[in-house]
Amino acid sequence: MKYWWFQMANVLGDSSGRETICRVTGGMKVKADRDESSPYAAMLAAQDVATRCKELGITALHIKIRATGGNGTKTPGPGAQSALRALARSGMKIGRIEDVTPTPSDSTRRKGGRRGRRL
């Protein structure tokens, strides 16, 4: 089984990538809008994915982590590490951990204008 951690959502799919078995976001776990992208929400979402895996009899996962990429940030957010830790603590065997963030060879212009973001 493959497990994807995107910037906002935990997605569990089969190894071919065609079928989605489970999809949990941080916004489904917390009530406040500001907490949707927090490490705590990511941990709760990963625990939900782990319980769904155990129901289906899945014991091992290959993990793909994806940040925004392109013009956005190329590093995964703070929730990725806590989601990984929650999966490992729940008893799942972790095979490969792979970063699949799209990195452009030559990007389009970033926002902010010529003088940049002024505070």
Short description:
It is built from 2 helices and 5 strands.
Write the layout of secondary structure elements.
Blueprint: E1 2-5, E2 9-13, E3 20-25, H1 39-56, E4 60-65, H2 78-89, E5 93-99
Parallel strand pairs: 1-4, 4-5
Antiparallel strand pairs: 1-2, 2-3
Protein name: 40S ribosomal protein S14
Pfam families: Ribosomal_S11 (PF00411)
Region (Disordered): 96-119
Helix-strand topology string: EEEHEHE
Mean of residue pLDDT values: 86
Which fold name fills CATH's third level, the topology?
A: Nucleotidyltransferase, domain 5
Percent in strands: 15-25%
Q: Please report the first level of CATH classification, the CATH class.
A: Alpha Beta
Tell me how many strands there are.
Answer: 5
Instruction: Give the tally of structural domains.
Output: 1
Measured as a percent range, the helix fraction is 25-40%
Enumerate how many helices there are, as a single number: 2
Rg for CA atoms: 16 Å
The poorly predicted ranges are none
The CATH architecture is 2-Layer Sandwich
Cα-to-Cα separation, first versus last residue = 46 Å
GO molecular function, one term: structural constituent of ribosome
Protein name: 40S ribosomal protein S14
Family: Belongs to the universal ribosomal protein uS11 family.
Keywords: Ribonucleoprotein, Ribosomal protein
